[in-house]
TrEMBL record:
Domain Histidine kinase: 399-613
The name this protein goes by in its record: C4-dicarboxylate transport sensor protein DctB
Catalyzed reactions per annotation: ATP + protein L-histidine = ADP + protein N-phospho-L-histidine
Species for this entry: Meridianimarinicoccus roseus
Gene3D superfamilies in alphabetical order: 1.10.287.130, Histidine kinase-like ATPase, C-terminal domain, PAS domain
Residue ranges crossing the lipid bilayer per the database entry: 303-325
Amino acid sequence: MTTALRRSFLLRSETARVAAAVLCAIALGAAALPWMDRHFQIRAGLQGIDTLNLSVAGLRGALDRFEPLPPLIAERPVLAELLSDPTNPALLARVNAELKQTAESLRASDVYLMDADGLTLAASSYLKELSFVGQNFTYRPYFTDALRGVPARYFALGTTSGERGYFFAAPVWDGAQVIGVLALKFTVDAFEDAWRAGPSELIVTDANGVVFMSSRTDWHFRTLGPLSPAALDEIRATRQYPPARLHPLDVTLTPITDRLDRVTIDGGSGGGTEAFVSASTILPDVGWRVRILSPAGPVRAQALGVLLFLGMIALLVGLAAALVLSRRARILDRLEAQRATQDLLEQRVRERTADLNVANASLRTEVEERRSAEHRLRQTQKELVQAGKLAALGQMSAAISHEINQPLAAVKSYADNAAMLLDRDRQSEARENMTRISDMADRIATISGHLRNFARRPQEGIAPVDMVAVVDDALDLMRARLASGGVRVGFDRPSKPVMAMGGQLRLQQVVVNLLSNALDATEHLAAPRIRVVLSPPEDGEVRLAVQDSGPGLSEAALAQVFDPFFTTKSPGKGLGLGLSISFNIVEDFGGHLRARNIDAGGAEFSVELPAAPPPQAVAAQ
């Protein structure tokens, strides 16, 4: 076979393989369409469950708000008085006015009072054209249940007002005897108006499958299936719904998962077939099932869009493969001419490989040197942190000495007085002096304990740390310097721990450095102020800010305030390492240290640290 014929055969063979691959990709995409359709249906259904839960919470909130009210209203003495004397015009006017005011304050549709025969004596709607006064509601189950002495509830279409509502009823007692019933009704139109604002449809059905509430008015009183004769008889007897409108919807439910269904409704809007992804939940004490219907059309469009996208990719891959094959054919034509130079090229490749091996060896040596340098740098950073602590202790030494000498002088004075009091047999006063001496010793022990903890080398890793305790310890360490400088410190101490991720001692060093800088910034002010702000966790972060009333920072200083050896202090008052060390400590904990000028004057340094996870999350891990 000649070279030209071999190239032609190879080209035809490769082209056939590319075409077969493209056809296979198209077939796989078509086969994957049901899976993708189901995937997007589940995703739409889960989004619908969130909306469903919010809607159910709204219904439940309204029911829970109104349910306890009728028994409370029924206890009003004036209601029993009117039931005992129903022809008294003064009592009747008073009760009507009270019920009207009650309905308006509770935002209820109607509040009305019925006697033992079901006749409505007074109602909040007594001034309206369609008033409940004079109507008899003995056919309503809520009346008969309440007349037996138990609170009752019911939902139905109002026979007087023509408005759907939920009814709560309670007995009105005269001693041990029920003499009447107090009922309260609230309408459901407001819930449906809110549902119509969303893209999905919501329906509420009773135990018989009758649609009592819906975002679609044409579904009101439709049924999800045929009603039994007994159910129809009960509806007619209680006048719960208009029987003429109880026509079944042509509904088909196909399970998708244990929580989701695909619902199709024939003869829907426009007379066509509508498809939805549905989820539902039950309110057992009410007897309702709330169902959300998310349109399935957009879901199928998403699945088809993904399939089209994959098809376009397959087409592009096929075109790319055809281009590659075309280039391959041209390359085969050039191969014959390149054979003569192949040996020389291989020799050059071997030489280049040897050069690369030498370069790689040099690069490995350089990497090892870099790692060693990083290790030495971390060791140096630890030494600088310790040196910074000792420097801070040196700056605080005079004030701390004064802080310790004061209780020591008090101890000596109390001891001398105690000896004199004992000589005079004044033991109770001497005992008080000994108690004060013990308090002074505790104070000195607290100061020395803070100094010991602050000065030692930290060995802790990253763990949950109470930032309130960190600020308290830092303020205790700086208390003497702050007092000697006449600085007024404001710290709105949170009432409970604020937990962040870090190390107790190193974070204490950061806060001490920030307080020291703020103290230096306000050194020459007549009324220096420092404010410490510790915010609770927000968006996974804890923020601690130290603000001063000093002159603030210039633009140049803000740009390099965290650089090593940069300082705005006078010579001999700092090496310019405190903020650089603090910056690196906070970065090691996964946080940020920032500086800015505040509008009220002065500078603010803020520490942002990752918030510690809740204890239950840590236990689960």
